[in-house]
Write a structure and sequence with these properties.
single chain; mainly alpha; endopeptidase activator activity; Proteasome activator PA28 N-terminal domain-containing protein; Proteasome_activ_PA28_N; Proteasome_activ_PA28; 142 residues; elongated; Proteasome_activ_sf
């Protein structure tokens, strides 16, 4: 009884894997090739998909009143540089907040990710099924 169920499972996996390799994968290749040649993936100018993120460039963290000009040759030691950054006795990296709020995502890139992600996820699941079939075939040979 146990051996019969295992054999049935192996046959079922084998049939599914054969269908994937002989029918599904070739069709997916054609679908993905058509997707790559579509207008969403053939962008002539990158400026067409650029989005203004409106993030100001922060000042360099080592530029403050405690430092002298490097041209004068009186540059503070490394220890003094880090001591100059220390804010209110709190150690660690200085965290800057975006003054304009959250930076928006690039809507074109998000659309492409939403289009491709499910396809990749399905292909990974199908490849795992084929891998299981190959493993059961190899194990049954020994």
């Amino acid at each position: 009884m146990f051996g019969q169920k295992v054999s049935e499972f192996k046959e079922q996996i084998k049939k599914e894997a054969e269908a994937l390799v002989l029918k599904t994968f070739p069709q997916k290749i054609l679908d993905l090739q058509a997707l790559l040649t579509s207008s969403k993936f053939t962008i002539k100018k990158l400026s067409d998909i650029c989005t203004d993120i409106n993030i100001p460039v922060p000042e360099h963290p080592f530029l403050d009143n405690n430092h002298t000009d490097a041209a004068q040759g009186d540059q503070p030691s490394k220890k003094r540089k880090y001591a100059a950054i220390d804010c209110d006795g709190v150690s660690g990296t200085k965290v800057l907040v975006l003054p304009n709020g959250v930076a928006p995502c690039n809507k074109h890139v998000v659309e492409l990710i939403e289009l491709v992600k499910p396809l990749i996820r399905q292909l990974v699941e199908d490849a795992n099924l084929v891998s299981i079939c190959l493993q059961t075939w190899v194990l049954s040979e020994y």
